[in-house]
């Protein structure tokens, strides 16, 4: 009797730019975009590749590689963060820039898509080395950024201090003060109230609307969160105070679980004190895979790309997956989740609260008129609720999943702007 061979694992192309193009092509086919326009919208407008020589604290010179990609500016200046990470690649930055184009269009703000990154481990750099690297990078990209051209922001392992150095460098080179050249700045340098919480808060607004659609009581729901940085930790806190039970979380070092619910405020203090969620009293250790596969109503991937793939999508038990991270779900996993009836709230919708309040910050800087935090939050809620309903309507009309619905909505808006502007010369 022949012995059956074990199933061959599905081989997926996990290149982020290839995934971004595949998502684009799926939606573009639904719109019957003409070939020339399809080629324009799927390709980055400009890619700046940089070698950044920096004098280290010991006097030696080290060269870092950096990138700034502008994907599309048909609807307004480029907008997108800058990440400092050892795994940064040009294709990753190109993918993130394209997702920014579609994200801004999904929530209908007048900005295009851009992204930047430097291949480095910021944890191994002194503050002085980090400042010199940032200022060198800012000087190099100054030829293509500006309040009316391309507006950077924080991303993985960058923060308000990094943005302050970029703003100062650009301002000194311009001979004035240009606070609107970046967003995510400290409040006293022209930052916006509510910006720090915006990505998580926007995600929670969208989760709330999805729960209504799926007949889930948010106040009695269970939540698992992969990634406990800015977005993940703040989402945990906001959902905890909404009455939801956060049962599992993980960071880059460890994960913890308590089926009865974690004490999120105490967990936040523990993380701040120890640098990790590991060893949190009243919890049991759990690995990253189990956080994703936990029995829960809502799963929030808030880490890096390609976390839910064809290899583990069948084991996802959540009813709603809200992508606080960029690109956490592969196209093959999307199909599996859709067939299972899981509602995936795509990154270009679910985490668009950050760029929405970045847009608010840019507007406030240009007008020199700053808003109270409750005004920012109310404006954010209005944008996110409207955008959820726009995406849901598009997904329903075309009988597709929420991601394809969001891409159809976004691509159509950018296509209309591109056709109307025309091709010059």
From TrEMBL:
The record marks 155 as: Important for catalysis. SMART domains: ELFV_dehydrog. NAD(+) binds at residues 199, 230. Residues 192-422 form the Glutamate/phenylalanine/leucine/valine/L-tryptophan dehydrogenase C-terminal domain. GO terms for biological process: L-glutamate catabolic process. InterPro entries: Aminoacid_DH-like_N_sf (IPR046346), Glu/Leu/Phe/Val/Trp_DH (IPR006095), Glu/Leu/Phe/Val/Trp_DH_C (IPR006096), Glu/Leu/Phe/Val/Trp_DH_dimer (IPR006097), Glu/Leu/Phe/Val_DH_AS (IPR033524), Glu_DH (IPR014362), NAD(P)-bd_dom_sf (IPR036291), NAD_bind_Glu_DH (IPR033922). The active site is at 115 (proton donor). Substrate binds at residues 79, 103, 358. GO terms for molecular function: glutamate dehydrogenase (NAD+) activity; nucleotide binding. Transmembrane segments: none annotated. The keyword Metal-binding does not apply. It holds the Pfam family ELFV_dehydrog. The keyword Nucleotide-binding applies. Keywords: NAD, Nucleotide-binding, Oxidoreductase. Belongs to the Glu/Leu/Phe/Val dehydrogenases family. This is Glutamate dehydrogenase.
């Amino acid at each position: 009797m022949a012995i059956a061979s074990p199933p061959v694992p599905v081989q997926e192309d996990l290149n982020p730019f290839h995934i971004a193009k595949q998502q684009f092509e799926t939606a573009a086919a639904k719109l019957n975009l003409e070939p020339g326009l399809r080629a324009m919208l799927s390709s980055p407008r400009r890619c700046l590749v940089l070698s950044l020589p920096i004098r280290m604290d010991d006097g030696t010179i080290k060269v870092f590689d950096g990138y700034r990609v502008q994907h599309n500016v048909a609807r307004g200046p480029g907008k997108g963060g800058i990440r400092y990470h050892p795994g940064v690649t040009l294709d990753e930055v190109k993918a993130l820039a394209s997702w920014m184009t579609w994200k801004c269009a999904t929530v209908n703000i007048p900005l295009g898509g851009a992204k930047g990154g430097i291949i480095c481990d910021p944890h191994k750099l002194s503050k002085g080395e980090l400042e010199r690297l940032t200022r060198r990078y800012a000087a190099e990209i100054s030829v293509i950024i500006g309040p009316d051209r391309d507006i950077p922001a924080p991303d993985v392992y960058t923060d308000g201090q990094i943005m302050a150095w970029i703003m100062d460098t650009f301002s000194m080179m311009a001979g004035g003060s240009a606070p609107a050249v970046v967003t995510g700045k400290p409040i006293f340098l022209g930052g916006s109230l509510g910006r720090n919480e915006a990505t998580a808060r926007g995600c929670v607004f969208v989760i709330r609307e999805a729960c209504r659609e799926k007949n889930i009581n948010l106040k009695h729901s269970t939540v698992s969160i992969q990634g406990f940085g800015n977005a993940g930790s703040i989402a945990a806190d906001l959902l905890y105070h909404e009455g939801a039970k956060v049962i599992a979380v993980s960071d880059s070092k460890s994960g913890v679980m308590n089926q009865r619910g974690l004490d999120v405020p105490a967990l936040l203090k523990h993380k701040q004190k120890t640098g990790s969620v590991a060893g949190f009293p009243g919890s049991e250790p759990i690995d990253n895979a189990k956080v994703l596969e936990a029995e829960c109503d809502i799963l929030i991937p808030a880490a890096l790309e390609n976390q839910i793939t064809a290899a583990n999508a069948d084991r996802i038990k959540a009813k709603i997956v809200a992508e606080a991270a960029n690109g956490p779900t592969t196209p093959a996993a999307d199909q599996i989740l859709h067939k299972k009836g899981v509602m995936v709230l795509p990154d270009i919708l679910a985490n668009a609260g950050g760029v929405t309040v970045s847009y608010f910050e840019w507007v406030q800087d240009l007008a020199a008129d700053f808003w109270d935090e409750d005004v920012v939050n109310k404006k954010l809620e209005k944008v996110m609720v409207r955008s959820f309903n726009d995406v849901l309507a598009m997904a329903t009309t075309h009988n597709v999943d929420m991601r394809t619905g969001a891409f159809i909505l976004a691509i159509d808006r950018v296509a209309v702007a591109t056709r109307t502007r025309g091709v010059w010369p």
